[in-house]
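Propose amino acids for all 153 sites.
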């Protein structure tokens, strides 16, 4: 299976920008799909694009979650609170884009993936040992993985 990966910015890329630049560049070289998914305001698009460029992070799409007010009507899961509905959009994005992996640092996002997108290998950064395994596989030249695994921190 070809890697189709979603990466969070704050708390993930911002913690190790050089390492994620290397990872994203190598994935792109291997024709993998790299998508940046952020809860930053879309009004910060230009600054965010500049920041990612400064880091050297390569990607095929930069996606900003819709506003919290929109999430309330977009999320069909009525038992989720307002903030969970907002974060659920990350899992929904990953599902609609057929991502194989998603790297995020938020435990609430992890719980939402486990519940609503269990087929996507969620990698909790930096707590997961799978993060290092994924990084090593990619940098060793393997742009494919056998099966996604869902793991937590």
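Proposal:
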């Amino acid at each position: 299976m070809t890697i189709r990966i979603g990466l969070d910015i704050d708390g993930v890329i911002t913690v190790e920008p050089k390492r994620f630049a290397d990872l994203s560049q190598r994935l792109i070289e291997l024709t993998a799909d790299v998508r940046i998914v952020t809860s930053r305001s879309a009004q910060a698009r230009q600054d965010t694009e500049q920041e990612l460029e400064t880091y050297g992070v390569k990607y095929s799409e930069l996606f900003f979650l819709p506003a919290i007010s929109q999430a309330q009507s977009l999320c069909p899961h009525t038992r989720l609170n307002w903030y969970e509905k907002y974060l659920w959009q990350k899992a929904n994005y990953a599902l609609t884009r057929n991502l194989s992996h998603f790297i995020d640092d938020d435990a609430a996002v992890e719980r939402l993936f486990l519940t609503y997108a269990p087929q996507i290998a969620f990698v909790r950064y930096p707590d997961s040992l799978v993060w290092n395994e994924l990084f090593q596989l990619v940098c060793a030249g393997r742009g494919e993985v056998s099966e996604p695994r869902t793991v937590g921190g």
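Strands lie at 4-7, 33-38, 61-64, 101-104, 121-124. The longest helix spans residues 82-96.
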